[in-house]
Amino acid sequence: MSATHQLRCTNCGARIATEAVRSDFRCPECNGLYEVIYPWSEGAGPWNAGAGSANPASSPSANSSAIPSSTSSANPPSEVRLPNPGGMRHLWQERRTSTMPVDQSGVWRFRELLPIVRDVERVVTLREGNTPLYEMPRSAELAGVDWLLAKHQGMNPTGSFKDTGMTAALSVAVERGFQWVACASTGNTSAAMAAYAARAGLRCIVFIPEGKIAWGKLSQSMDYGALTVQLKTDFDGCLKLLTKLVQQFPIYLLNSVNPYRLEGQKTPAMEIVEQMEWQVPEHLVVPGGNLGNSSALGKGFLEMKHLGLIQRVPRISVIQAQGANPLYRWFGDENREMQPVKAETRATAIRIGNPASWRKASRVIEETGGWCEQVSEQEIALAKAEIGAEGVGCEPASAVTLAGLKKLVAAGRVAREERVVLVLTGHTLKDPQYTIDYHRGELLTAAEIAGATEAERVRHAALRKPPLVLEADESVVLRALEERMATVNAAGQQATPGTTK
Ligand code: F0G
């Protein structure tokens, strides 16, 4: 049994040794998902109790000699004593000036809280994490709060938050001796997996829904050398199929059902409080798709509180696209039954109707006192343009956070004086077609525009910046610029919220 960590089913509580987990990362008793626990985790209890017998189905093959004997020791770990909170904070800060790759990673810098590999110096890292926390004054004004911050996870090496999870889970795959890794994806997981697999010299297979992923993401998996399989189904169909395949081939599954992914994805929680000088925001707003990320961030904050690194946790709210809103519906359903939906949204990253981690995410929302909200296609497009107009930019799925925050404020769920952090999950260059269509006025349908309020229509008109196509003639260009500048200056005089500062 691992000295440093075990897996606990988040549904029935059964604990197993890390080597015993099935290749689909599901509990054999109840089909629940696992979480990684450490001797210091809340409710960890006596360290050796409760872990079932090993049935190493998650190894490359039952008789493969490529599997390292792994972290097996039945003794209670002596090395698990953590430094005190002050010591850890100091250590994490100090590592930022180190030249060692593992210290330069914004995930492994916090390695005391994710001791999941034996040899931390052999982890696969692209120096992920350490992403900026931007002030968003114009978006704050639009949403109706005094102070708004954006944690931009799109500033990771492959342009999305997935890198933080991939460095963790792929490093585990390497340590376990796997040659092949795979994921089903709406595009970002596959881009991240392909890059990290290439760095590690592993082979990888990507399953993506045909025609429903942004070109930027698809091009990344090809660039990094993945075997890319476009299936004539949606994300949910891809994941279902892959879950069956990994039970037949020695392939390591890298979707967020893999609990090690979430260990990496919890580290932005540490970064956020570190960047706020160890103050905790009142509210964190996260997009919801397969619901792994909100679960991971919740785990990060709750663990920090448990360890005394922070005194309280932020409320964590999850925002879904209206056309892909199973968790939103679940909260509204008095019988509390999860009903998968046929997902449809232009925010293709979160076009997911049957989210694997919905139980974990719903608990995070309930435990932290947050909400689940849904936003329309028109609201997403507007919020994305507003984030872009602040010089920050993000992909459509990330923009649901600002759109959702506006609704939470309007409903009185977030007060003006609360410090809110939006988690922007992907870079604007991931889906340039969406942005171009928006600015050319080709994105939203007449019905969607008709559903907007008057104020929203005014904002759309002010934000849209289609390119001017002109003759290459000095006087023509001069006249056009004069006209434009006069219009922009006149609009500026009216001081529409969010356009000037
Ligand atoms: N934002 C972006 C940019 C994403 O790519 C995803 C998920 C999410 C938000 C939602 O996060 O699934 O943890 O709730 N993308 C996955 C993928 C599904 O395959 O790239 P979640």
Describe the fold and architecture.
The protein has 501 residues and is an alpha/beta fold. The protein contains 18 helices and 14 strands. It has helices at 85-94, 101-104, 137-143, 162-175, 188-200, 215-223, 235-245, 259-265, 267-275, 292-306, 326-332, 358-368, 377-389, 396-410, 432-439, 446-450, 454-463, 474-493, and strands at residues 6-9, 15-16, 34-37, 51-52, 133-135, 147-152, 180-184, 203-209, 227-231, 251-253, 283-287, 315-321, 372-375, 419-424. Helix 5 links the parallel strand 7 and strand 8 (203-209). Helix 8 crosses helix 10. The longest helix has 20 residues, at 474-493. The protein is globular. The model is unreliable at 52-79 (pLDDT under 50). Ligand F0G binds next to helix 5, helix 10 and helix 14.
Any descriptors?
501 residues, alpha/beta, 4-stranded mixed sheet, 38% helix, binds ligand F0G
List the helices and strands and how they pair.
Layout lengths: L5 E4 L5 E2 L17 E4 L13 E2 L32 H10 L6 H4 L28 E3 L1 H7 L3 E6 L9 H14 L4 E5 L3 H13 L2 E7 L5 H9 L3 E5 L3 H11 L5 E3 L5 H7 L1 H9 L7 E5 L4 H15 L8 E7 L4 H7 L25 H11 L3 E4 L1 H13 L6 H15 L8 E6 L7 H8 L6 H5 L3 H10 L10 H20 L8
Parallel strand pairs: 2-4, 6-14, 7-8, 7-10, 8-9, 11-12, 11-14, 12-13
Antiparallel strand pairs: 1-2, 1-3, 5-6
Helix pairs in contact: 4-5, 4-8, 5-6, 8-10, 9-10, 10-12, 13-14, 13-17
Ligand F0G binds next to helix 5, helix 10 and helix 14.
